[in-house]
Design brief:
Length: 439
């Protein structure tokens, strides 16, 4: 069994430093193999507690050399939780490599040991009926001083669940435990190792982003200029939320974005190509992508790019395999779309104009429809008001008749009372004059 060792950490430092210097890293001094792996960067300042600066890896088996090369850079530069590590931070860094082994399915969510096992949890979010998953490496719970339940609850939050965590929900968790071997090295130890074994100190050039534009043009290749622009701009965070298409120009190139239902499609092109060709390319890619994978994205079943349909495989592992299988399966399609767009510029230009006209007509039609609907709503409102007025008129007429009848009855009652009073008075006077009924 392969264990994490010093040469693996040295290779991670070599890879990061080579990235800053725009060079190739020295060949690794460890044997090739295939294992799940993680690379963790921490920063130690003034002898304090190491603070996490990036941690990314894979739960599926990867070739160790390519895996450490990829994840040394990904964890240092593209962990979304942290800003990219800069070259000036190197003297304060320590690197930890982890080789994961001994995957086992737990009987329940407490079937693991703190400090010995890393854990992967999978559960269904009861609020959104979606499946969630996340992992902690073996050293995390012990380092944080958590109990098992505290670690599980924290991992559920890491997976994106924001609802109430109940015991019944914990019992529905599917837990996979694993073990790991780790090796940690500080940058100062790395320098000492390099001086001893290679009789030199790795040079650290000024970070790319601190150089003036003219120096960048002379010292670095076009590919690195693309990377500089993309990282310095933090392009994805600057995308306008109210636009489906967006273009950013930099160093004679355009970064063209197409946003559709949470997916961001990007192509980098020379400014001389214009805007129409890149966006036609992105439209073709988007339509092809949605046709191939759109249905599976909305379903809870096995993704078509996951490794296989074995029910025993971990969902978390399958998700990590999707990115690599996508490159293998969809990469040739990207090439076909790009070649078509570059070989038919006139046709694409005409098509773009036609689409623009269609979009304009569609906008006018939608505006007219909205006006008609708005007018219809106003007519309906007028009808409602008319009906309400008619109802009020009928009610007023009915109340008028009732009031007239009531007043007539009151008038009749008054007349009867007055007439009765007069008649009584006449009878009394008659009796007084005639001294009874003898007249």
């Amino acid at each position: 069994m392969v264990s994490a060792n010093r040469e693996m950490v040295v290779y991670c430092f070599d890879t990061l430093i080579a990235h800053y210097n725009s060079e190739q890293a020295p060949p690794p001094a460890f044997d090739e193999g295939q294992h799940p792996l993680f690379v963790t960067w921490k920063k130690v300042v003034n002898g304090g507690e190491p603070r996490l600066r990036g941690c990314i890896g894979t739960l599926e088996a990867r070739c160790l050399i390519n895996g450490f090369k990829d994840y040394a850079l990904t964890s240092a530069l593209r962990d979304r939780r942290f800003p990219p590590i800069q070259a000036k931070e190197l003297p304060y860094l320590e690197c930890t490599v982890s080789i994961l082994t001994d995957y086992e399915t737990g009987f329940q969510y407490l079937d693991w040991e703190i400090g010995k096992h890393g854990i992967i949890i999978e559960f269904t979010d009861p609020d959104y009926n979606t499946r969630r998953s996340a992992t902690y490496l073996p050293e995390v719970a012990a380092h944080e001083g958590w109990t098992k339940i505290e670690a599980i609850d924290s991992l559920m939050r890491k997976a994106g669940y924001n609802g109430t965590i109940s015991e019944s929900l914990r019992k529905r968790i599917r837990l996979t435990r694993y073990q790991s071997t780790i090796f940690t090295m500080h940058y100062s130890d790395y320098i000492s190792y390099v001086r001893t074994t290679r009789e030199l100190t790795p040079p650290i050039q000024t970070p790319l982003r601190s150089l003036p534009p003219e120096a960048n043009a002379k010292l670095h290749s076009q590919e690195l200029t693309f990377g500089k622009a993309f990282l310095d701009l933090e392009a994805f965070e600057k995308l306008p939320s109210n636009s489906s298409k967006y273009t950013y120009s930099c160093d004679g190139h355009t970064f063209n974005f197409l946003i559709d239902n949470g997916f961001v499609f990007l192509v980098v092109a020379d400014e001389s190509v214009g805007r129409s060709v890149p966006f036609v390319f992105l439209e073709r890619v988007k339509d092809d992508f949605k046709q191939r994978y759109g249905a599976s994205i909305k379903s809870d079943g096995l993704h078509p790019l996951a490794d296989d349909g074995d029910d025993e495989d971990d969902l978390f592992v399958d998700r990590f395999s999707i990115a690599y299988n996508l490159d293998r399966e969809f990469g040739p399609r990207l090439k076909e779309h790009m070649e078509y767009c570059m070989n038919h510029p006139d046709e694409i230009s005409k098509l773009s104009k036609l689409k623009a006209q269609i979009t304009e007509v569609k906008g006018i039609m939608m505006d007219n429809i909205e006006k008609v609907l708005d007018r219809g709503e106003r007519i309906e409102l007028l009808v409602d008001k008319t009906e309400n007025l008619q109802f009020q008129a009928d009610s007023f007429q009915r109340q008028g008749r009732q009031l007239r009848r009531k007043m007539w009855l009151q008038n009749l009652q008054m007349k009867l009372m007055v007439g009765g009073g007069v008649l009584t008075l006449i009878v009394i006077l008659w009796l007084m004059v005639c001294r009874g009924f003898k007249c």
